[in-house]
Amino acid sequence: MPFPGLDWTPALDRPDLLAASTARALARWADDDDAVRASVLVAEIDPSLADTAALTAAYDLPLAASANCVVVAGRRAGDERTAAAVVLATTRADVNSAVKRLLDVRKASFLPMDRAVEGSGMEYGGITPLGLPEGWRVLVDARVAATDHVVVGSGVRRSKVALPGPLLARMPGAEVVEDLAIA
């Protein structure tokens, strides 16, 4: 198990601990990639500890192995462009430069919480790159991709997912980006 502070089990064996869209995305991905079934794990947590700082303290998880998934958007010619940026918790998404450039918009900003929750179909504090809506880009910072195991949301606040960073980097639709985040 990657992090001994939690009771990890294969995520596909516990769909009750995943958002419905996350469970569907993992099942589809597992059909195409044998590593998913054994390597993507889920652990139940206290939902009041879902935020990164509280989670890492309570479960003795290394902050450098936690990744945040933030939803950003910008407009170009009246068309909204939405993306999820996945960055290590020790960094922050470079929304004003890297994300803006990648979305090809004049201004990019974090999507308001209510819109991020509604658009993703996931709970605030649990939004994950696994199972986001079609049409949303999934931008993964190269440092996340290089992490042995990374902890991300599960789509719900009551659990977390752990998987190898290189596996997350090859998730369908993922785009690995150098310098997506700044320290």
Automatic annotation (TrEMBL):
Q: Does the keyword Ligase apply?
A: yes
UniProt keywords (A-Z) are: Aminoacyl-tRNA synthetase, Ligase
GO molecular function (one): aminoacyl-tRNA ligase activity
The record's section on Gene3D superfamilies has:
YbaK/aminoacyl-tRNA synthetase-associated domain
Ranges for domain YbaK/aminoacyl-tRNA synthetase-associated: 47-167
Keyword Cytoplasm recorded: no
Q: Give the protein's recorded name.
A: Prolyl-tRNA synthetase
Q: Which organism is it from?
A: Cellulomonas carbonis T26
